[in-house]
Amino acid sequence: MSNTTNSTTGNPTNSATNGVTSNAMSSAMSSAMSNVTSSTTSSTTSGTTSGTNAVEERIAFIGLGHMGGPMAMNLAKAGYAVTAFDVSPAALERAGQAGVMAAPSAAAAVEGATVVISMLPASQHVEALYLGEGGLLSHLAAGALVIDCSTIAPASAQRVSLAAETRGIAMLDAPVSGGTAGAAAGTLTFIVGGEAQALERARPVLGAMGKNVFHMGGAGAGQVAKLCNNMALGVIMAVTGEALALGVSHGLDPQALSAMMAVSTGRSWATEVCNPWPGVKPEAPASRGYAGGFGNDLMLKDLGLAVEAALQVGAAVPLGELARNLYALNSRAGRGRLDFSSVQQLVAGDGGPLG
Ligand code: NAD
Fold first, then answer.
1. Average pLDDT for the chain
2. Which of 82, 128, 250, 255 minimizes the number of CB atoms within 10 Å of its CB?
3. pTM of the predicted protein model
4. CATH number at residue 307
């Protein structure tokens, strides 16, 4: 139960009201679990819920960070009118150079907008942005579409969705996979929860920022699916680091060990692409001091959300809990802002990357 301040308006927003039970969550999830995988290039470009078509959508974009900045720029590049707000003037200026119009506040950004996209750090930011007196939902006209791409608690997504629905506003939770490289290249994967009709309207907009869309079910289902993926990723990265450290401690070459694993049953994205051992993959964050990539503290947040989601339904996630603690230790060791593959450093061992 925490009160946060709406940074858009300065209004206090109670971010803890939770009328969403795990039963409500289960029924929302079971309502539309058909997986729709479609390339957005072949997606619908018409048939919107409000009678507008894709080119007429006017987009407000809130949160121009590592992910949101390039996403907003890709929308502008695709020809959309994009007005954006970020609490960071530097982020606004960067996006401005790529054709994104800067607004002095989130409320100003959504004036006249038909679609609002948010890409913020965590649940409290998203709830503070949309809910409460003066929150963005009170600034939007009925018929608007809200797409929140942040990774947040499924229950938070459901709270915003419910509040939107009561105002005649459609809402999708659409967290992404693909990282900063995918955001820049416009090849993100959107993992979506919400009504199918709203998703059809959103497809052309999502297509300007990404390549794949998975419809996982009703409100909150996109967030649940995203947390499942990131929990698996967090565990796999940590155990890959552990395996490499074990091998190196026995005198193995990390490059040779990784090459073998990459074509054996221990293979994964962590071995093949984002290898956590410095120097094994020149293009991986590990080979540039773990700079860039997906921050340790974002992985820590996602694992916390996964554990919370497990508690809600009584699921057992022993490895997810263990991994959450490992990333917490890595953060406390001063590597919170580095790529999450820096978890390798916890188990570097003698002769390891710490030297
Ligand atoms: P970021 O910290 O780089 O960006 C967040 C931006 O939001 C910042 O520019 C910040 O100034 C802005 N902001 C914060 N509060 C605001 C407010 N009230 N109004 C307007 N702007 C506000 O984070 P990011 O890496 O872009 O990640 C955003 C979300 O995407 C997170 O939920 C993260 O978990 C998720 N995600 C990140 C990655 C990645 O590789 N970085 C990958 C997938 C998903």
1. 86
2. 250
3. 0.84
4. 1.10.1040.10
